[in-house]
Design goal:
mainly beta, seven-stranded mixed beta sheet, four-stranded antiparallel beta sheet
């Protein structure tokens, strides 16, 4: 079993930055990717970003390009999501999840709330 714990959420003003963390524990952690999703009032699940564990390739949703950056803590099972220039529409619960080679998200964190005020 793998446990994922997100942290770093909070309430900020538009234009501010936040860095979310996704820390994994449990059995040997070697996912294909670690994905970030969010749940907003309008969308149950929206893809935010993905970090490829093996080669650090990243992918982003259109709204995240240029503002969000996914990265990994060297030597640790921690993936970050740096979010800059936050907007009120970024208000959501942010989740991290592992993705296997079949494109399935098999482990999920509990989520962390991000609220952006205008």
């Amino acid at each position: 079993q793998v446990q994922l714990v997100e942290s770093g959420g909070g309430t900020v003003q538009a234009g501010d930055s936040l860095r979310l963390s996704c820390e994994a524990s449990g059995r040997t952690f070697n996912p294909y990717k670690v994905d970030w999703f969010r749940r907003t009032l309008r969308k149950e699940r929206e893809f935010v970003a993905a970090f490829t564990w093996g080669d650090a390739t990243t992918f982003y949703g259109d709204f995240a390009k240029g503002r969000f950056t996914a990265s990994r803590e060297n030597g640790k099972n921690i993936v970050y999501l740096q979010m800059n220039d936050l907007k009120p529409e970024d208000t959501a619960v942010y989740y991290c999840a592992t993705e296997n080679v079949f494109g399935q998200n098999d482990y999920w964190g509990q989520g962390t709330q991000v609220t952006v005020s205008s």
